[in-house]
Structures are given as C-alpha cells and as structure tokens.
Design goal:
Blueprint (H helix, E strand, L loop, with lengths): L1 H16 L6 H27 L9 H21 L13 H22 L3
Helix pairs in contact: 1-3, 2-3
Length: 118
C-alpha cells in the first residue's frame, strides 16, 4: 500500500510539472476527482467483481484511503511545488503517453494475475 501512495504522489507531481502554474487552480481539483473516481472503480472491481466480497469494500479504512487519494494532488501542490510556479512547460510527447499507457496495462494484468494466488 505504501508503494501505491508513492505512485499517486509521483503521478500528481509529474502531471502538475507539465501544466502551467496559472492552470493549477482548475487542474488540481480535476486531478483529485479523477484519482478518487479511479480508486473507487478499482476497489469495486477488486472486491465486488473479482473477489466476490462486496461487504469488505466499504469499511472505515476504505473511506480514509479515498480521502488520502483525493487529497494527494493538493498535498503535492502545496508542499513539493509550492515555489515552482514555472510558466515554461515541457510538452509530453506521444511516445511518453504510449509508454505510460502500456505500463499501466501491464501493471493491471500483473495485478489481476497475482490476485488469483491470494
């Protein structure tokens, strides 16, 4: 779980570094909402659909984790990127987007494969 938190933080950091500082006020809440929606869909898929135990899904700790996922972009913005309001943005190439998508798909396949051994 600790690795997941680091990955969410890195994703927020990387995304905000490639957006102009003047757009952070609208992009940070949108990123937080996307993170929350993604976490909810992943949890529902893992607990209710794949493992078949939907009663284990909505515990108090799950909502705490959702809160952490939602707050993560704001934490990154106001702690790590507090002084870095650079207006010069590095463009993200199509190759980087493709590699990121393929990495995500491979991680999903590896996760689904490893769940059968739980």
């Amino acid at each position: 779980m600790f690795l997941s938190v680091l990955l969410w933080a890195y994703m927020a950091y990387y995304s905000l570094k490639h957006v102009p500082g003047k757009d952070w006020n609208k992009d940070t809440p949108a990123m937080a909402a996307c993170f929350l929606l993604t976490a909810m869909v992943q949890d529902y898929f893992l607990y209710a659909v794949y493992r078949g135990v939907p009663d284990e899904l909505y515990e108090f700790t799950t909502f705490l984790a959702y809160g952490l996922v939602f707050v993560m972009p704001f934490l990154v913005r106001y702690t790590l990127l507090r002084k870095a309001k650079s207006e010069q943005v590095t463009a993200i190439s199509n190759t980087v987007i493709l590699v990121t998508a393929l990495t995500g798909i491979c991680a999903l396949i590896l996760t689904l494969w490893s769940i059968k051994f739980w």
